[in-house]
Amino acid sequence: MAARKLTTRSGRSAAGRFLAEGAQAVREALARAAGRDRPAAVHELFVTEQAASRHADLVRQARAAGVRVSTVTPRAAELLSETVTPQGLVAVCDTVDVTVAEAIGDSPRMVAVLVGVSDPGNAGTVVRVADAAGADAVVLAGDSVDPHNGKCVRASTGSLFHLPVARERDVADVMTACRAAGLRVVAADGRATQRLDDADVEAALAEPTAWLFGNEAHGLAPEVTRAADAAVAVPIYGAAESLNLATAAAVCLYATARAQRSQSSRQ
Questions:
Q1: In what order do the strands lie in the sheet with 68-71?
Q2: What pLDDT score was predicted for residue 36?
Q3: Which of 107, 193, 194, 223 ranks highest by number of CB atoms within 10 Å?
Q4: How far apart are CA 264 and CA 12, in angstroms?
Q5: pTM, rounded to two decimals
Q6: How many helices (H) and strands (E) does the chain have?
Q7: 213, 243 in Cβ contact below 8 A?
Q8: Which residues pair with 19 in a beta bridge?
Q9: Positive/negative CA dihedral, 86, 92, 93, 97
């Protein structure tokens, strides 16, 4: 099965396609394919008989959109899945990443930049958080995970299809692009002297902001933090040693969304 190759990064890169597994991901993929703002093709839907019965609405929607629907055995569905309990519903989709310039756009208010993030579950969760907080885009910079990785797609719970996602190995180029778009680049760094709850930090977040979030184990490299316009720590009020990446990103992005919305309501 040619689709099996899409479970590997090299296979996805060669084909320009990836697998979206599960009802939520398939639903959002079909919705994006039907959209006018950022259309992307869904080429085929693989479905087991049991899943076809359970999600008859999605099968009908796919067929109505001209998507080829192929019934497969549970074993074949397992080969396309990276989960312990496959849902038996997998769509072959065009990859969704765009250039950094396309993702950021002309007048962004908030962008999340993941620098060297290697865990696909964390990356997908941050995409979901960024979507929920109203971010304009997510950029995976440096040696970061492929956003089309199966675990990343699942962790995003469909948000991968909602907002622009870009990849760029050169972190400096990403920061340059953010600044060119009018964004202030802020590094999330637990060692920073400025804290997220400082009054001046909150005021600054009301302006267009690009957050840099680092690797799960090591955070941001010192040279990346130094190159940012500011470094801010999420305060720890209790005895916890630190916050994980996705939680810290949620706190920072929602603090920014709140500051920006408060400013808008006063204008």
A1: 17-21, 89-94, 42-47, 68-71
A2: 54
A3: 194
A4: 41
A5: 0.92
A6: 12, 11
A7: no
A8: 92
A9: positive
Q: How far apart are the first and last CA of the chain?
A: 57
Dihedrals phi, psi of 11, to nearest 5 degrees: -65, -40
Residue whose structure tokens are 């060297």: 116
Interhelix angle 120-133/245-266, rounded to 10 degrees, is 10
Q: What span, in angstroms and rounded, lies between the C-alpha atoms of 137 and 185? A: 14
Q: Which of 21, 23, 251, 20 is nearest to 130 (CA)?
A: 251
Angle between helices 56-64 and 23-34 (to 10 degrees): 20
Phi, psi of 163 (to 5 degrees): -135, 155
Q: What is the spatial distance between Cα 149 and Cα 19, in angstroms, rounded to a whole number?
A: 8
Segments of the chain with pLDDT less than 70: 1, 35-40, 265-267
Neighbour-count burial of 194, counting CB atoms closer than 10 A to its CB (0-12 exposed, 13-18 middle, 19+ buried): middle
Annotate 206-232 with DSSP letters as a single string: TS-EEEEE-BTTTBS-HHHHHHSSEEE
Query: What residues form DSSP beta bridges with 219?
Result: 215
Cα distance between residue 15 and residue 246, in whole Å = 30
Contact (CB, 8 A) for 85 and 109: no
Residue 66 is encoded by which pair of tokens?
Answer: 């001209």
Q: What is the largest CA-CA distance in the chain?
A: 59
For residues 9 and 21, give the distance between their C-alpha atoms in angstroms, rounded to a whole number.
16
Instruction: List helix spans (H) across 21-170.
Output: 23-34, 49-54, 56-64, 74-79, 100-104, 120-133, 150-155
pLDDT at position 34 is 74
* Predicted pLDDT of residue 188: 97
| Structure confidence by residue, pLDDT tens digits, 232-258 | 999 999 999 889 999 999 999 999 999
Q: Read off φ and ψ for residue 94, nearest 5 degrees.
A: -65, 145
